[in-house]
Write a structure and sequence with these properties.
Elements (H helix, E strand, L loop, with lengths): L1 E5 L6 H9 L3 E5 L10 E4 L4 H10 L2 H10 L4 E4 L1 H6 E4 L10 E6 L9 E6 L8 E6 L3 E5 L4 E6 L2 E7 L2 E4 L10 H17 L1
Parallel strand pairs: 1-2, 1-3, 3-4, 4-12, 5-6
Antiparallel strand pairs: 6-9, 7-8, 10-11, 11-12
The protein binds glutamine.
């Protein structure tokens, strides 16, 4: 099983390390053609405006929408979650506009630019270590979206079918259970298509 990490900007290598801990193979994806080689895709944290701009420039918007349309799983972390969202709070236009959520960028305020904590994630037995860096929040979810994690009543992890999104950086700790959760989604999809 192969999982790609969109490698236009942001935290790519750390995601590949976490993917490989699950036993799957991790591949950086720099060109649209490389999407054919993977069964699932991670869109990493970084800067969502930059990632969105580069995705447009290199043809990734259409290609990733098609990838999702085939039922292949996509996991957006931090800026990657913003890129996945249908709506961004404020005037900003969305990027992939795939997941039925509204996100607010940099939602934790300056004094809390970065922090770590343990969070309960529905479907994972013990709390997961989460690193937040200028993180977004999910302000609203559509009817098909399942909320997986709350941090102080705010939604920070959610799933809609083959789409998974979290506000924090699961790749910056040794805790790879959220990557394992995603790898299980990818494996289930492969099994369903056999
Ligand atoms: N760590 C991150 O990915 C930060 C996201 C960034 N603040 C943005 O809005 O795109």
């Amino acid at each position: 099983m192969r999982i790609g990490v969109l490698a236009l900007q942001g935290a790519v290598t750390e995601h590949i390390v976490s993917i490989e801990k699950t036993g799957a193979q991790g591949l950086p994806i720099k060109r649209v053609e490389e999407l054919d080689r993977v069964d699932g895709l991670i869109i990493p944290g970084g800067e969502s405006t930059t990632i969105g701009k580069l995705m447009r420039k290199y043809g990734f918007i259409e290609a990733v929408r098609e990838f999702a349309g085939q039922g292949k799983p996509i996991f957006g972390t931090c800026a990657g979650m913003i890129v996945l969202a249908k709506r961004i709070a404020g005037d900003e236009a969305g990027h992939l506009e795939l997941m039925d959520i509204t996100v607010a960028r940099n939602a934790f305020g300056r004094q809390r630019e970065s922090f770590e904590c343990d969070l309960e994630v529905k479907g994972i037995a013990e709390p997961v270590r989460a690193v937040f860096i200028r993180a977004p929040l999910i302000e609203e979810v559509g009817p098909d979206v399942e909320v997986l994690t709350l941090y102080k009543d705010e939604i920070v992890t959610a799933r809609q079918g083959n789409l998974l999104a979290c506000s924090f950086h699961p790749e910056l700790t040794d805790d790879y259970r959220l990557h394992q959760y995603f790898a299980d989604m990818v494996e289930d999809r492969i099994a369903a298509n056999l």
